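Morning!

As promised:
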Amino acid sequence: MNVHIITIGDEILIGQIVDTNSAWMGEQLNLSGFKITCIKTVQDQLSDITKNIWSSIQEADVVLLTGGLGATKDDVTKKAIADFLGTGMYYDKEVHDRITSFFRKFGREPNEAHRLQSYMPNGVLLLENKMGTAPGMWFETNGKILASMPGVPYEMKHLMTEKVIPKLIKKYGTKPIFHRTIRTAGMGETSLALKIESIESSLPANTKIAYLPNLGEVRIRVSAFGEKDDSQEEIEKKVNDISNKIEKELGNFVYAGNEENLPTTLGKLLLRKKMRLATAESCTGGNIAARIVRIPGSSSYFNGGIIAYSNGIKIKELGVKKETLESHGAVSEETVKEMVLGAINKLNVDLAIAVSGIAGPGGGSPEKPVGTIWIAVGNNENIRTLKLQLSKDRLKNIEYTTNSALNLARLFLLEN
Amino acid sequence: MNVHIITIGDEILIGQIVDTNSAWMGEQLNLSGFKITCIKTVQDQLSDITKNIWSSIQEADVVLLTGGLGATKDDVTKKAIADFLGTGMYYDKEVHDRITSFFRKFGREPNEAHRLQSYMPNGVLLLENKMGTAPGMWFETNGKILASMPGVPYEMKHLMTEKVIPKLIKKYGTKPIFHRTIRTAGMGETSLALKIESIESSLPANTKIAYLPNLGEVRIRVSAFGEKDDSQEEIEKKVNDISNKIEKELGNFVYAGNEENLPTTLGKLLLRKKMRLATAESCTGGNIAARIVRIPGSSSYFNGGIIAYSNGIKIKELGVKKETLESHGAVSEETVKEMVLGAINKLNVDLAIAVSGIAGPGGGSPEKPVGTIWIAVGNNENIRTLKLQLSKDRLKNIEYTTNSALNLARLFLLEN
C-alpha cells in the first residue's frame, strides 16, 4: 500500500516557508506502517492540482492533499477535487452553520466568502475539523483513496490523527507494528552501534534499529513489523525486549525511554531529589539556561544564572581567582570548577553547571584551538568536569556544548 | 521557463529529516527570476528516480536533482541519469584523481567504493564540486536541462551558486529582476501595510511588495520584474526608489536594509557608540543573551548577564527592592527598571536590557494574565519601558519577547 502526499502552496515553491507538514505526515504514516513513495509540492493553481491528483492516483493507493482550503486560499483544492471527480458542488448547510457559529463565538459575523466556503464537491465524505472552519474531505474510488486537509499545521495534525490515519488503518487493516525510541546522550552514533553490536547482529526477524543523531544526542528507534496473523502484544513484546536489552547495555547513556527531552529529564531528577540548579555560562551565553527555562514549571528547580562572558564578570560575580585566569586561562578545568563554586555560593543552589570555551570561528591558539570547551557540574563537595574538542562552527558548538552540559548535570545527579 | 526540483531520499519521505534544500533552492531560483512549478521527493530507488526524471522533463524546461550521489548513497542518481540518457558509464580518471587527493589530504586512502564513484554517465558535463568528492552533472537535450547535485547542503549550495544558477542565466538570458529586503521590528504586518498604503497603492508596473512576518519582526521584500529590453539598472532603480520611500515612511521601525539580523544590527550600533551591554532576564531565561552571543565577535560589546529567574536572585544579585516586588509584583514596570539599574551597576556596562513576564502556559492572574511581559532598556540616567500582552504559548512568548527586547535596545541607542 503506497501513499503520495501533495502539498499545495506557492509560498513553499519559492522558499518562503519550509514544508514541515509533509515531514510530520511522512513520519506518522511510516510509524503506522504505511509506505510513502512520493511527496510533491505544487502550485496554488486549479489545473496543476488536478493534473497532479491524476498522476498520483495512478501510482499510489492513497493520495493525501494539504493546503489550498479555506476562504483566503480561494478553496482551490476543493475545486480541483470536484474537477477530478467530475462532479459539481452542493451547498452544505451544516458546514455553513458550523462556520457561522465559529465566527459568532469570537463576536464576528461570517461574510459572503464564508458562504461560498460552504459549497462542497458532490460525493465526498466530510471530515469534521474541530480546529478550524474548513472540513477535511475523503473520497474512495476503484479501491483508491483521495483525502484532503487544510494546510494550517494544527488543523492538519488534528485531522490526520483523529480521522485520516484511523480510517486508513480501518480500510487497509495494517499489519501490527510497534516502535519505541530510546534517547541517549554522551556517546556518538558509531560508538553506540559498537556497544550494542551483539544485540543488533542477533535481532529477531522483522525488527530494526535506527540511529537518529543530533549534536551530542542520539535517539535509537527500535521497530518491529508483524505479519497479519501476529498479535500486537507479540510485536510490542519483541520491541520491548530489544529495547530493555539496549537500555541495560547502555546504562546511564540512556536518559529517557521515550520522546522526553534532556532538560525535561534533568528537571524531573532535580524535583525528585528536591534540589535547585543554577548556571554559570561563558561561551554558551545563556543558552543552557534558556533551554532549561523553555520547560513549563522550571521555576520549581531553577533559580537562575550568571552569564560571565567577560573575565571581569567571572572574577566579580563568580569569584573566579585572577591568578587562575592568568595561569590557566578562561578556558580551563580550573576556571570552570571555580565558576561552579561561585554559582553555588552566590545563587543559593544545590547544583551548578559551568561552561567556558572557544566557540569560534576565531579566537583559537595552538594549545587551545577553536572548539575547545570545558564543562563542570557539581556542588561544594564534588565537581565533575568534561573537556570537548569541537569544530569551528560557532552555532553547532554552542548547541553541542549545551546538550553535553545538560547531560553532565544529569549524570552527576544519578551518581551523587 | 519552468523548473522542477527532485529531491532523492527515503529519510525525507519518512520524516526523519525535513527537506530544507528544496526551500533554499526555490528561494534562490525565484530571486533569479526562474519559476519553480513543482518540488518532488522520491525514493532512493533507481526505477523511481528514472520515472520521475521522465515525467518532470516533459512538464518542465529544467529539472534539478539533489541527493543520491556519493559512495554511501550507492550513486543511485548517477545510474538513473545514465538510464534516462540511455547511455553507459565511463571511468573518469580526473574524478578519481580528485577523490584520491581529497582523501590523502586527510591522511586516508580511498577504497574500491571510491573507484566506482569515478564512473560517470556518458555525455554529461561534470560540474566541479570544491566542497566534496561527488561532482555535479549537467545535461542538455532538446532544449531541456537536467542537472544533479549532491544532497549535502553546503555542497549543493556551492554548486547552485557557482555553477547551476550562472549557467541557467547564461542559457535563458533571464529578464532583469531585482529584490531588496527591508527588515523591520516593533510593528505588526497589518499596521505596516496601513502605514505604507499610499506607496503600495501607487506601485509602478511589474513591482511587488511582500510581507514576511516572524514573532515581533516583519521583513518587507520589494521586487521588480523587467522585460527583456529593460536595463538592470532601471529595474534596480525602481526597487531602490520604492525601498527608500518605505524606509523613510517607516523610520526607526526599519532596522536593516538587507538580510542582517537584529542582534547583528544592535552589535554594530554598540560598537559604533563604543558602549557595552548586559542583560537581566527573568522569563526569557538567558535567551536574549544567547541570541547576542551567537554573533561572532560579540565579546567586543557584551559583558554578560544575570538570569534572575527567582525573586531571590532579583533581590540579591540585581538589587531589586523587596518592597517593589511586594507592592508591584515581579512582573511590573518598577521591577524591570530596578533590574536595569542593578545590571548596569553590577556588570559594569553602559546599557542594560531587563525583562520579566509570565511566559505561560500557567501562572497568570486576572490583573496579569499569561503573556503579560515588561521590558526595560536603559542606563543610570534614562530608562525606556515596554509592556507586551502576548499569548499562552510559552515558546512563542519567549521568542517574541526576545526580539522586542533587542529592538527596544536598538531604539534606545538611536535616541540616546
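The longest strand of chain A covers residues 177-185.

Hope this helps with the figure draft.
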